[in-house]
## 1
Amino acid sequence: MPSALETLVKILRLEREQGYKNTAVIGGLAGYATGWQEVAHTQARKPEHHAMIDEISDRLRTYDALENRNERHAVVSFVLDRVMRPVAAGTEPAAAQEQPSKQRRPADNEKRQLEGNSKPRPTRERREAGNGAPEQRQPEQRPPKKDKPGKKQAVRPAPPRVQDDDDGVPVPAGIAEEDASRLDYDFIGEARAPVKRDLPPPPRLARPPRRTRNIVDIAQATDTLRGLKATVDKVRGVGTQTASQLAKVGIKTINNLLFYLPRRYDDYTQLLPIARLKPNTPATIVGMVRHSEIRIAQGGRKDCHIVVDDGSALISVTFFGMGYLLSRIRPHMQVVLRGITSTYRNRLQLTNPEWEELDPEDLQLARIVPIYPLTEGLRPKKLRDAIRQALDYWAERLPDYVPEGTLERADLADLGWTLRNLHNPESWDHLHHAKRRYIFDQLLLLQLAILGNRRNWQATPAIPLEVSDEFVTSFLQAAYPYELTGAQQRAIADIRNDIAKPIPMNRLLQGDVGSGKTAVAMMVLALAFGAGKQAVLMAPTGILAEQHYRNVTRTMEKMPGERKPVVAMLTGSISSAERDRVYTGLADGSIDMVVGTHAIIQQGVQFSDLALAVIDEQHRFGVEQRGALRSKGRNPHLLIMTATPIPRTLALTIHADLDLSVMDEMPPGRIPIKTKVISPTGRERAYEFIEEQLKLGRQAFAVYPLVEASDKIEAQAATEAFEQLQKVFYHHKVGLLHGRMKPAEKDSIMADFAAHKFDVMVTTSVAEVGVDIPNASVILIDGANRFGLAQLHQFRGRVGRGGHASYCLLVCDSDLPEARERLTALEMFSDGFKLAEIDWKLRGAGDLIGTRQSGQSTLQLMDDMSPELVELAQREARTIFEEDPDLHHEQHRLLAQRVNMLRDDRSDLS
């Protein structure tokens, strides 16, 4: 039976786990203290113990009156420390002395045992504590070893104590070192579950520290920055083999190593034991592998099954299709598992979690642990050691390239301090400030690089395109007998103003699905023709290019006047003879407009007088490809269109080289798409509804997150759904389209769907940007919670284009309430820009930005990017650029070098 002190320690630890809410014991700690005091006095064996019990009881009686969490933490920490503190020099902790079976017997009792008397004489303290009660027999102990004759008796030192890093509660000596490093252990030597160390937050870091700068020696700083380009094997402890492994994750230089950031952080101060985990919640588990085996599933699939014990409970873990892990995850190994819990037959389990062998240092230090992207053979500890070595040398030597005035205005941290806390944060508050500085740097450098590029290409003049108001009015009246929206009229006015100047236009036309961007594009092509110049419209896929070609041809036939524009199509699927004819017509000027794909920018394509280019779905093209298109003419004006809504603040940062026109109005008469979120159990009813639409002669999309079934992701796959839906809709034709098909095959399937050769199209995210299918009236998105809101809105835009009532059905396959709540935004809003703002707040900017396609992505931590920080970086970048566009001023010299390093790392900025 545990002693009063043992019981109190467990109660106080539970109180700490529960956040000092005074709920660890019924009636509160103050009320518990009185009864506990009486019991503890009956068990005390020394006078000093009685004094300690009274002292503890007095402190606990004040607990209920304390309202401040920090004050309650102080009381709990004091009592825990007081229980474990040695009461006199050379004696054991009081709690340990409450365990007669685990302590050394007094010397006189040992002597009596050696003399053959197995019943030790009770000490005075034990007689007093027992109040004359019969004494229980002690278990026999082996006699101590005798010292050799003539050797002086050694003085036995007080038992060493291992400090539990956060709360000061020691682990006693005698516990095996491997066990002490394996898990957090109780003070009596019993393994206990990792507790949720709900410690009081550190003092609020109102502003990050910043050291006073000395006068910067530019030459020395330049040498330092040059040193960052040294190969990573120059770092201490990084040999040839480690360097080779680091190269697999893109770490080739010291600069790569320093800025290779964690993908997330695990808080080892906030671990919950298995016994307290709930289903369908993210969890980090630290424990010992008790059992491992291979289980053969149907079809011969080998699953690795293990059982993990953290001292509080066991949990079953299955790695589907990963039988090879059995040789790596061995019994008695200490592991860290990260995943989402679930239940199977009312038992908690993990499936396909992330895992790694426990680094005892992480648990002992109870810190915030960085988790890095890894590759085969690269162990977490090896990477962390390499980063630590690099930080130890470089963190304080790195010259801060951001001007001090900028840091002061923005209240940002020093660069060295930032890097240390990105890799080894002292607290979550420190990490917040470090991320803030790092994200600001990325946005600042990116904007300065893009603004510099914009200035460079604008230095080469373009051909001004001037057309009369009468030409514009007559074309619009002939092509579009209805009034354009205000947004369309403003966009056309912006474009006319741009192209009338010798400075090349570089404008982004951003509009929601169905906002009328195509009408604006037709007007732009007509403007080039009206000025007597050639124009290009480039699309990402052949089928989309064919659709544009038909629209352009049909619209340009309505051009007022005797001469109509000659329109051609250039894609990879046309015949050689037709390609040669188009090449000749573009070179001699007999073709006025060409619509096509990447084939337009291939070598051998020459234009007679290209003055304007329109790119549809710009995120499918890289900056290099846009540059190749510019090279086809005398720096032609460029209009880029996108239907992907991005919040204006974000668009102005990521596309700082582009002027922005936003199509934020919808043409009248467009029927809203009815959207409904359903559970997986509602699939059958959804199929019945789709069947009704098909009987009306309509068509349907069915979108899935995966191409094929995955052992790592429990989600519907398009290939499996295709086989299933062929049976469900056996009266109709079902097609399959996914990204692993060849471009020509995808174009052929989409063309057949547009021609109504298929009734249902089973597809993946390739449907995000597709051809116009006016007859499609319903889209089913399975696993919708796995997509971003902006992407789902793009999917939804595949229907509702033909004047029919249209529907979007979202299947949520997650039990998490927040997943369904997020999807309800699509039920409430049809405005893509509104949804993009919501997506930014809920998921971060990562899904909205993607990358700038060609070249390496340099944007990290985008999920932590806030609108306030974006606006701050925009303002500072423009201030610096307007003041010093060449970055030649002394305070901008280091900044210029960093911008050049960015261009070296990214081919799309060079």
Note: DSSP finds 32 helices and 23 strands in the chain.
## 2
Amino acid sequence: MQHGKWRLWAAAALTAALLELPFPLAGPMPPWRSVFAWFGLVPLLWAVLSASSWEAKRPVRRGFLLGYVSGILWYMGNCYWVRDVMMRYGDMPALAPLLLLLAFSLVLGLYFGLFAVCVALVRKGTGGTRMALAAAPVLWAAMELAAARITSVPWDQLGYSQVDNGLVNQLAPWTGVYGISFVLVAVNALLAAGLLPGSTRGKMRAGAVGAALLLAGWAGILWPVPKPHPTATAVLIQPNLDVGVDNVWNGPVWDAHIADFTRLAETECAPYIEGIPQTGAPAGKTPCPYTPTRPDLVVWPESPAPFFAEDPRFQQATAAIARTVKAPLIVNAIGSDYSDDGWKYYVSAVVVSADGERVGRYDKIHLVPFGEYVPFQNLLFFARKLTGAVSKFDRGKVRKVFRLNGHRYGIFICYEAVFADEVREFSRLGAEVLVNISDDGWYGDTSAAWQHLNMARMRAIENRRWLLRDTNNGVTAVIDPYGRVRQSIPRHQMGALPAEFGFRDDMTFYTEHGDVFAWLCAILALGMMGRAIRASLRIQLSNKVRS
């Protein structure tokens, strides 16, 4: 390797390491660690735009490779749990889970490579680093949109790192998480400008502005956030059922589980620990402001319980529970419909009124690839053999809002929480509170459950809605419209959270218009790329003429 070039590759690896830190690693993330997102991208930007890179014969190709290496390493670190999940539950050969994680990272790492090559192209087309750095936040937001829309894995986009930042996340109701990512990359670009070739005065000015914005932005974790007063109660049941095994509840076993369901559904309002108990942050018991005669809602999460929506035994049991607790229910079950193509099966949420009548059913639309279906089955014909435990469900077609006790509820299931533009549709349809049921038991004790929680918290912020998050084994929590976890219960325990929440029907800009900001960035990025490529071709043609 040419002398000094190792620093470029080390810088790419350093960015991957730094950007792991502002996300949960093996538990809830302390808010102070969000600071790494404000400068974690600096080493990669420096490597792509440094003089050492542009002394190479093919600097644009080198820029892509630097970004690609950084992306591969980041995905392998951030999503290490993919290996753990497939190793434990995927019914795969010994080395297959590691190879699957590597393949996963090789594919998604291309987005980092795409970002870096676009920055390098702007640098080549303009002949300087200033425009390339100015383009960086636009290109990053466009890249995140591509990850959400093309491969449908918008996991831990950069802006999620600021979910505890009361100042910065005020952008979310306007731009979604993409606007927060934009700001973070803009500050990274300013800091990188202080390290790249240029006038001393310009470098000092850019570095000083970047440092000031970093400190001001990071201090946003201390920004006072409104604390809306709850007006309703729900019981969020956490059954803590084993995943990855066949649950067959026959006879007495069925009766025992339904008795547990009923007992947990009757949980009354009681003193609770505010926040997330596992963080170790100061927390105190907070008394209930009132003691209701009955809850406004009881929720059973997505879980391996053998509930089938059309099973008469299930229908009788849920009707009896609803009448016993005098409250409507939301219960996960397998839904089914018959059509000309035969039977179709869905991951569903069944809604039952307080008098035991069926209100309706929501069928999950965005399924988990390689978990609930195998994508591109004709192309990936071998995947079924490698992942024997993959279920085969059909996609739902309609997002629904259900009216209960005079209020409208929007329900989404598990993985759907990471798709901001889809979740906001429930609020746009009139939902006054959001309910997210999920089974995060597959993740074990990895970081994924906490990452999933933070993405759900961003959905509450974007739509300014209370969000009731009920999971099989944690993290079961109540999230207020400003993204704060107001109540939660420990993971891996059977229990019920007496949740206090409220209703809102106002519409944020993001709720009404979705990813407008991200699409504008994508359009602008395409324009930048077209102009940069034309400029590069003119330079090449001019060089040929002179030679």
Note: Residues 232-239+249-511 form a domain with the Nitrilase/N-carbamoyl-D-aminoacid amidohydrolase fold (CATH 3.60.110.10).
## 3
Amino acid sequence: MPKVPLSWLAESVDLVPGSSAEDVATALARVGLEEEGIEGAAVTGPLVVGRVLSVVKETQSNGKTINYCRVDVGAEHNDPPGPGHAPDDVVEFPTSRGIVCGAHNFVAGDYVVVVLPGATLPGPFPISGRKTYGHWSDGMICSSSELGIAELGLGEDHTGIIVLHSPSGESDEFGTFTADDLTVGQDAIALLGLDESTIEINVTPDRGYSFSIRGVAREYSHATGQEFRDPAALEFTGTPGAGFEVSIEDAAPIRDTVGCDRFVVRILRGFDPSAQSPAWMKNRLSQAGMRPISLAVDVTNYVMLELGHPLHAYDLAKVTAPIVVRRAQAGEKLTTLDDAVRTLDPEDILVCDSPVEGALRGHGARPVGMGGVMGGLDTEISETTQDVLLEAAHWDPITIARTARRHKLGSEASRRYERGVDTALAPAAIERALRLMQEFGGGVIEDVYTDVNDTVAREPIVMDTDFPGRIVGVEYPVEDMMGYLTEVGCEVERDGEVLIVTPPTWRPDLSHPIDLVEEVARLGGYDSLPSVLPVAPPGRGLTHSQRARRSVARTLAENGLTEVLTYPFISEQRLDDLQIPAGDPRREVVRLANPLSAEQPLLRTSLIETLVDALKVNLGRGAQDVAIFELGRAFQRGDIGEVPTSYSGAHITPDDVERLNAALPGQPRRVAGIICGSREAAGWNGPAKAFDWTDAMAASERVARECGVELEVSAEPHMPWHSGRCATYRLADGTFVGHAGELHPKVLETLGLPARTVAFELLLDPMIEASEGRIVAAEPVAAQTLAKEDFAFVVPVTVSAGDLVRVVREAGGDRVEDARVFDVYAGAQIGEGKKSLAVNVVMRAADHTLSAEEVLGVREAIIAAVEQEFGAVLR
């Protein structure tokens, strides 16, 4: 996202008088450029340029060496010495301040940045005089990090102070400014640009021209009507002709698109490689988020930020004519500017020079740069460069985007090229850059330059005059539409009820009538669009499914779980992490043709697969007790149908939509949760109580209750759950619903999750469908006395508590109001392969109090049924 310093913006467009940074951001938002943040002045109070007069090193008792300095901060700020000054200090340096400093990257005579008492540094950190290490320190010599400007490129070691200029050349940061730039006592806030407001803008992919001061200034002019001055409107000094030879040999274009359709080069001879970038240029680069490096590199970056056209500078002595632009061949390698050796792909487009000894045999030319992405190390500008070959080219956006992603090499240049760069801008960008290099580094610009131009003129777009009104719902006068489109740079002609619009070269996103509609709407003002709320049709409300899903989410939230929304994309490793066995239907994944991330190319087959990522994020941020859930969809490849390739007519019909839906993979609605940590925190009344697998089961039962169904529970091992602590749920008709329980220890270990983490996942759709149309009646309050009986049955260990309860309920009939297992015991007294299940049974009749005989009859029926079903023995 580009950062736009307001003073730089004001050079290309008049800001509305009295506008603040917030006002400018608001104006840009009106035309679709949203601000991500505003950076303002972080330092207040006196911050000045000082000159170090003396440095006395003193070793303290703790072994630390400090410097006691006398610093001249200008007549206005050289106050009389404070308490603690030694008389000889005052005599030798009567017009100065004494300052204690722990840094050692400066010497006497250096110009530094001094913050004086009464100022406030970022933090906030108020500055005042104080006694320290036996001296009165009357201010502070500042480092970049203390000023909050570590990114300004004022030194690699941000623990050292900022040396603006070192006449002796002894300091680490010599050369940041020249002596002519500095005056003792001058305001360092303005000097370092700390009073500059900078707006960070969010640029959508179709608005690549806004990655420049030029583009943002034009948009601000659209929003406010202020005059726009094009910084690319230069008077050219050169003539295109037979300059440095260039040949574009993209003989086999990819996707029927030529990788490079314009290539401009021009030479600057006699350049001074030791020349420094001016302070104002360094400040602007830093404010825009780029680190100053050297004059040649700084100028190319500056022009790229200003005009939006990336440039690349070669050391002419290291390049042999002709330059050849071609696709890479298999096996070729290139060492890029970041000193990485990269194996090239045949789709990569390269800048090469003529064959030299040592070039790869048979490839015809040596790669010296990866076109539109990054240059090569062999031909880079260095401290010995005197002749500069400057390149400005136009590259195919898709080719650049794929190359940058393939090599994981996103650069400032590739970000602009993949969004589209003005095809007419290359000569102006070179002219602007070479003039700046010549101004500050000397040299002679060759008059004749090379411009291989194979660009194609923009095709006109034909649009009906009523089309914007039909799309937006607002009638726009034809004259207004023509004015808006002309304002963005289009050539507009009217032919009856049709507009013929030729987009400008800097707007590659304008290619269809619908694109022009967007321009009309945004320049007409999004804020002027009327707000019309649709009227809900009578007799409708939420569907049964919608009510059920809302109830499920509400009850889970009321019981302490937090709803999250995760992306449905997973890596190929995730199914292995969860130890999903081979042949499992969850292995039948849907693979995306164009995933957002190459590391996550699959769609999830269960919600647990992505919920674990949300859990890990919370744990990574220090959370210990986490309970989260999600309502969403998972996807099943086995349900993908045949995708239709033709439709009923000119417009898609409901039948066509049904055919498309039938081709989609299965994506049933689900609800899942994952829980770890403590249910109750430790307190004065006892230790913490951890979540366990029964909490996952309880959450599942709450979901079923809100859906209006009863679930049958069984114990069936199912990864990624623990084989002994996993419940499987089905509807009464046997329809599978889901699982709940503790996750398997191996899964937890692989994923790096806490031990005893529990989870549940249920299919919502079958539960909601099962309760469709069902009337839920309130149960009357019983008026009769209840009877209780406890049973302890010895059964085989394979008998589940759920099966036992089911048999008990069936045997007791309508006399059994409730039955639940309250104890499980296994041991030597029971016998090998056996366990004891204790069941509490509540009995009651609706119309009378049960007699002893009736209770006894129910008891005997329960015992007989359990003995017959399981071979149980009553203890």
Note: The domain at 47-191 is CATH 2.40.50.140 (OB fold (Dihydrolipoamide Acetyltransferase, E2P)).
